Amino acid sequence: MAPLIVAVQGELGSNSELAALEYFDGRTIDILPCYTFADLFAAVDQGHAQAAMAPVENSLAGSIHDVWNLLLDHHPRVAGEIRLRVVHCLIGLPGATLADVRRVRSHPQALAQCDEYLTALSGVTVEAAYDTAGAVQIIKSENQPQEAAIASAQAAADHGMQILARELSAADNFTRFLVLGEGVTSVGSLKSTVILEMEHTAAALPAVLGRLAARGIEVLKVETCKRIGRPWAYNVYLEFVGGTDGPAGQALAEIGEFVTRRQIVGTYATGVAAEPRLHRR
Amino acid sequence: MAPLIVAVQGELGSNSELAALEYFDGRTIDILPCYTFADLFAAVDQGHAQAAMAPVENSLAGSIHDVWNLLLDHHPRVAGEIRLRVVHCLIGLPGATLADVRRVRSHPQALAQCDEYLTALSGVTVEAAYDTAGAVQIIKSENQPQEAAIASAQAAADHGMQILARELSAADNFTRFLVLGEGVTSVGSLKSTVILEMEHTAAALPAVLGRLAARGIEVLKVETCKRIGRPWAYNVYLEFVGGTDGPAGQALAEIGEFVTRRQIVGTYATGVAAEPRLHRR
């Protein structure tokens, strides 16, 4: 069988790639690295990739609104999900020590999550890079022992670099990915993701949640997000157990007066939490 | 009677000052301009001001989370509220014309709200300033006809500057202020503001809204806000009709299992919507 082409944002060794390797474990895949989230969605739209990993939320940072907006605009097929634990490592040149480090580069999100650790390192400056694994490539090419990156253990192994410290953020650091396009067949229970657009959450949100509760539908996520520039308008990210037909469909049909737009992102098998493993290339 | 000292963020002519003038209409007040929101709360804490205008949300930009966080940390007395319509004007030197303008300065929020207007002005760059009215002071002191600011008509009048264009943003542009410290006696109906801290909004938020609905309490605002760096933790901004005793108090007492912290910001008279007027100095 030909390898499945899976688009990820970032380079090899990024958390998105690790999530793809865990989700498609046992299946031969080829990774298509994408520079931006928009590139990732375009890769699926245009058929350059059969699947893509879309990070929708992180336990420490919250929902990744850029990705939700792309879900609204592109409405790709959602095939599954996976939660990957994020283990941030401080990575330097072979032979470098922690005492050598004067500058740390990584994705701004990773830098923010390791803020407490970085603050405790005295005399060290931080600098943003477009990707965690990409930062490892940069410090490798610069070849200076005072330069370090924050990325996965996989990124260190891929580039023959050295791990100077592990577990730099809170341990309960998970990123949840929706798998776009083609997924794996799963026997897990179903869940659904919906985006509701409403003006004034005050009346609409209690009504929506009340209708779901009245039908015994268990809500898995509910979050509001301001639509900047649109008077009083909010998006609500809503996830619940089961599909969007049957009782949930009835509930969603009843709330028309409260919502200005209702987009069903998808119904898919509930994913598992995975620990990142080291993969041989 | 001695004038009431009212702290506002920004300079004279800022929307915060205009809100103070409308809210305390008929009473003699002295304005205490503050550089940051933290300074504003400190001014009330330390007794340098008897009242302060705290902008909690804008119809286009959403909740001003910095102010909500200060409400959590300082728990000042909330005496009232007012909604002020925000009318952004493009302001230049006397004698300058729209065709002269090459650079526009204002608070980033104001620039964002006027983005559509600014994009249509070709060959113009934008630059952030700490305050709308402060930007007018700056362009006045620089005395260059190609420099303009976005601020209120009041700021233009105060500095003897010229209004080149009015109503630059959506017309439905309102900022809502809570009045901290001393307010005006009002016969309006009461409302309450509460901040709930919860882990996983999925079970907690439907439960909280369900308890309020079961007691017939009308919700006026509900919004989630991620607590960055705290796994899965969110704050919920909740406002409802009435006080926090009686049925609402019972509902809030019942939700203890769902929330990790419950802070009553205050109960106060529901405010009115005001149009900014031009004041003689």
How would you describe this structure to a colleague?
Two copies of one chain form a homodimer. Chain A is an alpha/beta fold and 281 residues long. Chain A has three domains: 4-85 and 173-182, 3-Layer(aba) Sandwich (D-Maltodextrin-Binding Protein, domain 2); 89-165, Periplasmic binding protein-like II (D-Maltodextrin-Binding Protein, domain 2); 190-268, Alpha-Beta Plaits (2-Layer Sandwich), CATH 3.30.70. The first copy, chain A, is 28% helix and 35% strand. The first copy, chain A, is built from nine helices and 16 strands. Chain A has helices at 15-23, 37-45, 65-74, 108-113, 115-120, 132-142, 153-158, 201-214, 246-254, and strands at residues 4-9, 29-34, 51-58, 62-63, 78-85, 89-92, 103-106, 125-128, 147-151, 162-165, 174-181, 190-199, 219-226, 233-241, 261-269, 273-274. In chain A, the strands form three sheets. In chain A, strands 1, 2, 3, 4, 5, 11 and 16 form a seven-stranded mixed beta sheet that branches. The first copy, chain A, has a five-stranded mixed beta sheet with strand order 8-7-9-6-10. Chain A has a four-stranded antiparallel beta sheet with strand order 13-14-12-15, sandwiched between helices. The longest helix of chain A has 14 residues, at 201-214. In chain A, 46% of the residues are buried. The model of chain A has no long low-confidence stretch (mean pLDDT 94). The interface between A and B is medium-sized, with 34 and 34 residues.
